[in-house]
TrEMBL record:
Domain Carbohydrate kinase PfkB residues, every copy: 35-290
Keywords from the named record: Kinase, Transferase
SUPFAM superfamilies linked: Ribokinase-like
Protein name in the entry: Carbohydrate kinase family protein
Protein species of origin: Thiolapillus brandeum
High-level lineage: Bacteria, Pseudomonadati, Pseudomonadota, Gammaproteobacteria, Chromatiales
Xref: InterPro entries: Carboh/pur_kinase_PfkB_CS, PfkB_dom, Ribokinase-like
Tagged with keyword tRNA processing: no
Length: 310
């Protein structure tokens, strides 16, 4: 079983302003906003949903390759992927574009000002699912709008079951688009906010939508997650995290757990718990690809967390 993970690759540049934005952005002056923040702390992380999910799946020893479009500045990320042993076979470099990148400035109140440049990601439709070989399971994570629509069609045409995971890409789609994705996909994955948006835009409840697919997975941060399948809701507890460093990318880590469970024919109770533990391990580390474990260590922690082995 091999997974194809369609989605974004991005550099995330995170800067910390050691003060409060509210001391510098004055409401009576926003019509002539011209501010500069001195940011002594800065880190640059490898990110993007497809990159993150592929990284997490690799940690678990799952099989799969990401598919995405990247820019001419991708070399450091490519080197990182090579060191992790993650396939770059389905990555396409777009001439004249930068890799997607987010510039995130946070202050001491945990406010964030973010600029996101999609760059090469907007060309994601140049990659085709039909150009791949041996794919038996798909995942469609946030990417260029056209690419997401076409990749869903291509998965459906090829008879490859896939998880629709719209994430931050959700606002690009109206109710009609979302219902089409739900018809094409076998599984839908959301966080609680996205699940709410899905229900609002489609006018259908999660329970009604769950009747149309094999399962809908809804994550709720530290509160755990739910899997709606076969007319019932399976509640998955969160695993205890030793520290809460950075919640970014917990959703991606969780999705790698879903792929791993599906690839290995596991039941939803265990698949959900593997996914849940992935999210808990991720939150203990800053950045989305800085956590690391062996499969034996993961299995031991799974047993500790849930009281049985897989
Ligand atoms: N504080 C926490 N403690 C333990 N597990 C957590 C915590 N936060 C998240 N997780 C795990 O990660 C999963 C996914 O997290 P969450 O629902 O926040 O995803 P998300 O909103 O899509 O995140 P993002 O898009 O930033 O990656 C949760 O269902 C849970 O299993
Ligand atoms: Mg998410």
């Amino acid at each position: 079983m091999s997974s194809l993970i369609c989605g974004s690759f991005a550099y995330d540049t995170i800067m910390v302003f050691h003060d409060h934005f509210k001391n510098h952005i004055l409401p009576e002056q926003v019509h002539i906003l011209n501010v500069s923040f001195l940011v002594p702390d800065m880190r640059r992380e490898f990110g993007g949903c497809a990159g993150n999910i592929a990284y997490n799946l690799k940690l678990l020893g799952g099989e799969g390759a990401p598919m995405g479009t990247v820019g001419t500045d991708f070399t450091p990320y490519a080197d990182w992927m090579d060191r992790q042993g993650i396939s770059r076979e389905y990555l396409r470099i777009i001439d004249g574009e930068y890799t997607a990148q987010a510039y995130i400035t946070t202050d001491q109140d945990d406010n964030q000002i973010t600029a996101f440049h999609p760059g090469a990601m907007n060309h994601s439709h140049l990659n085709k699912v039909s150009d791949t070989a041996g794919v038996t399971l798909g995942l469609l994570s946030p990417d260029g709008r056209q690419g997401m629509i076409e990749h869903a069609e291509q998965f459906a045409e090829a008879g490859i079951p896939f998880i629709f995971d719209p994430g931050q890409g959700m606002p690009m789609f109206d109710g009609e688009d979302l219902l089409r994705f739900a018809e094409q996909a076998s599984w839908l994955a959301f966080n609680d906010y996205e699940a709410k948006l899905m229900q609002e835009r489609t006018g259908k409840t999660i329970e009604a939508l769950a009747g149309q697919v094999q399962a809908i997975i809804v994550t709720r941060g530290g509160e755990g997650s739910s899997i709606f399948t076969d007319g019932r809701e399976i509640v998955i507890p969160s695993a205890k995290a030793a520290s809460l460093e950075d919640p970014t990318g917990c959703g991606d880590a969780y999705r790698a757990g879903l792929l791993y469970g599906l690839q290995n024919g596991m039941d939803w109770e265990t698949t959900g718990r593997i996914a849940s533990l992935m999210g808990a391990i991720k939150i203990e580390h800053a950045g989305t690809q800085n956590h690391r474990f062996t499969l034996d260590e993961f299995k031991a922690r799974f047993n500790e967390s849930f009281g049985y082995s897989f």
